[in-house]
Fold this protein.
Amino acid sequence: MSTSFDKYQKRRLISSYFSVVISISLVLFLLGCLGLLVINAKKVADHFKEQVVVTIYLNDTAKEVEVKQLEKSLAMADYTKSTTYVPKEDAAKLMQEETGEDFMDFVGYNPLMNSIDVYLKADYVTNETLQSISEDLADKQFIEEIRYDNDLVELMNDNVKKITFWVLIISSLFTLIAVLLINSSIRLAVYSKRFIIKTMQMVGATKSFIRRPFIWKNVQLGLIGSAVAMIGMGAVLYYVNKSFPSLGFLDHPILLVLVFVLVAAIGVIITSISTFIATQRFLNLKTDHLYY
């Protein structure tokens, strides 16, 4: 009979530990993924900003040397990430592929113009900078027109500011939720041992002596939960980097290591503090109140 009871108690204890580890790992995993998103938020925003193109259309009378000089000056400019010269023949082929029709059969000639596509660095993708670039280039006689999507740039910059603000708010809120959930799991685990705590106290054990094994055990569970969370974070990071290599999520390994270390530290700190508070509560509780 005692053997069956011992096995039951052992299974119950393991189940309690398993629940705590799962709770900690899930919360830390979500918190860690949010941390990865926060440190890469600017990189993601910059990636989309750098897809904005400024197209410079050239007159047919433009001399080759003038075009070469313009390309060279644009490539050397501080705001330029890359430039691409697009002959009107290539532009016509691209339009044919997009529309599925050969528009030159109707027109009889190629009405398109040679152009230079300029991709800017993310920090320069603002309406003010684009307007300034347009004004500087407008003086050149062989440039027919300069086009860029002004509304898209304005919308993109506004959305980046809003997203950044809400990511910070959500990060703060989720950190608070993580603390509360882990604390709740630890309190339930300690609650199941409240009679053991009170029994040890009644036979003369000091509070620090009683607290020590509880804190150490839950710190171990916190480390295990942190390890599980970090494995999940690593898998997510690998998948995202493989699916979207252009975002360069692995370009700053020091920041990534810092996030992983912080996840482990949060797991240890929250579990140790929560265990201390929970055990202290039952140590200070009167025996009659243990049943409530």
Remarks:
- Residues 53-148 form a domain with the Alpha-Beta Plaits fold (CATH 3.30.70.3040).
- DSSP finds nine helices and four strands in the chain.
- The chain has two domains: 2-47+156-291, 53-148.
